[in-house]
Amino acid sequence: MHVKVAVKITISRRLAALGIVACALFSVAAIVALRTVSNVSISSSAITTLGDRKDLYADVVPPPMWPVEAVGNITTAALARVADRPKMIASYRTLVKAFEDRIAYWQQRDAGQAHLAKVIEADRATFDVIDKQVIPALIAGDDAAVHAAINGDLAKA
Q1: How far is residue 25's CA from residue 101's CA, in Å, rounded to a whole number?
Q2: pLDDT value at position 24?
Q3: DSSP 132
Q4: Does the reported pTM lie above 0.70?
Q5: DSSP tag of 121
Q6: For residue 36, how many other CB atoms are within 10 A of its CB?
């Protein structure tokens, strides 16, 4: 013989159960939110690592971006009067020194070394063309050689 036990769940019990479930879900959501905020706070290790990588990638990706100011300085020197060129060449050398300082800094860091190697290679090739072809032609006042180097090997570097 089967005995049927009728369990009556009243509206107040249903509302109480719903309230308990809602509180539990809210608690879980609050814990997840607090952990997320903790993980992305300014002093967290995740943000520190992200900041290092962001800074590195801003400096090195894509590879030809970093020497743009130096190359722009030299191409502007090609259009400048011969008397103004030594000052622009000195400014270029300052920018190359800043590039070398950044290489030294990033080689000591542990972020993006594969990208860094590509950047160093590409940018040093660019600076090599400038140092060996463009600057000697600028100093000599040979505008045809300057423009040939800028439009030839420098454009390819």
Answers
A1: 53
A2: 96
A3: I
A4: no
A5: H
A6: 10
